[in-house]
Amino acid sequence: MGRDYSPESRGGHLMQQYFIEQVGQLGAYVELAKDDAHHLLRVMRAKVGEEVTLVDSKQQVFRAKLNQIEGKIATLQLIEQIEGQSTELSVQVTIATGLSKHDKLDWVVQKGTELGMFAFMPITLQRDVVKWTGQKISQRQERLQKIAKEAAEQSHRQRIPQVHLLHSFKEVLAASAAYTHCLVAYEEVAKAGQHEYLNQALHNFTSGDSVLCVFGSEGGLTEDEVSQLKEHGFETITLGPRILRTETAPLYLLSCISFVTEMTGKKDA
Amino acid sequence: MGRDYSPESRGGHLMQQYFIEQVGQLGAYVELAKDDAHHLLRVMRAKVGEEVTLVDSKQQVFRAKLNQIEGKIATLQLIEQIEGQSTELSVQVTIATGLSKHDKLDWVVQKGTELGMFAFMPITLQRDVVKWTGQKISQRQERLQKIAKEAAEQSHRQRIPQVHLLHSFKEVLAASAAYTHCLVAYEEVAKAGQHEYLNQALHNFTSGDSVLCVFGSEGGLTEDEVSQLKEHGFETITLGPRILRTETAPLYLLSCISFVTEMTGKKDA
Questions:
Q1: Rounded CA gap, A25 and A16, in Å?
Q2: Which domains, ranges and CATH numbers included, belong to chain A?
Q3: Residues 80-139 of B with CB under 8 A from A
Q4: pLDDT tens per residue across span B164-203
Q5: Could you give the ipTM of this predicted complex?
């Protein structure tokens, strides 16, 4: 799951991006975080005078020049503020999925970040094969948060998606009240051929809305879980006639949201 | 990249699907291919009398019952023809990408198959870091074809996407004449904010059309490659404001094509 835009592989035509925690000021000098300095100096092999893109805590984007290298510390100067198109989706989409085997959640977080996901919420479902307990809960959250940060840098996002700690199913139901729209992707609905639900849901989105979408793990959602979600105001959607794997379904949804809100000239959502 | 719908993980509510090479006849007995028999008997641990879905060479779908197990040979009887919604996209989308490191092409083929890809064409580009030569060309094709078959079974496709042998760039240009629409995903266009191109292209698709879309590898396409593609009638498209990785971009395109042609009630394309 590493970053793979090394100098050889990028063709050199797109500047590397990093996030900084402070608010940027033109002319100011900033130190990169330890991981980012390692990436810039060791992986990218940057030299003094080379330029990168920095995004500050207010989602401002700057062109910055590598000013000084002292051991593992990289200091850059902010030399120009870049005013461009936002790379953030106009609706805030939180992807909630059950726990999966192997590195599937790593992929969902990496690809979801590329596709504009606002936040990721791992959840406990009845048919999960995998369980997280004790220290594993925070360890997994930290790992996924690191993947989200690196993917946000590579895809030139203006913010890092938040990775939540593991939520129990009850906590998901309680949390849902805070979202403008709550969706659940449910395969049984797909069989009934009710594909218009997704299109209807997407056209109800307005800029600034928050969306929570729940996906099953490999085992799918139980009827009981779907019933409880519906009682809490979740709408069921389908994601096409083919059976998508648990790690593919969220990427399909995010791509459709991007298409409708960013690619069709529909300005409002 | 294995199949992971084991009995525990599926919740048991969706029948396993396999392809057979012959044309199916109600009541007929068929033997599963060796790999599929292994999967059904060893991984799924199926017993005589259990049912699966079989898709024949004419894309006909049957409910079939496991009739006999003899060592590694599984014989099934076709007991009902299932008339349902097609799981094939109405446009035939061939995804052509440069060669990538690690198992990225495995992922593109697996996920692309889930999302309805018609065929996959690995191509040689100037900035590829990876080269396939000699025996590796057919070995990689065979590996990717196997992944496509397994993904087609899991996603309940009615056909297995064809994986082509490696094409040189000149061969891609020559092959393009056979497609109704030729597209190239090009990052430089994204910077110019010309996102309407994708929407325009998708709305030109009509049922039965064939589409070839070329994607770069990690290094992206060179200006020279893009020029040559344009001279051969390729239209440039963008895939949203974020920088997508080489393995994510084709999945975004396929999701958008599915959305427009399968989910919006637009019957014709």
A1: 20
A2: 7-82 (2.40.240.20), 92-262 (3.40.1280.10)
A3: 85-87, 101-102, 111, 114-116, 127, 129
A4: 999 999 999 999 999 999 999 987 655 555 778 899 999 9
A5: 0.90
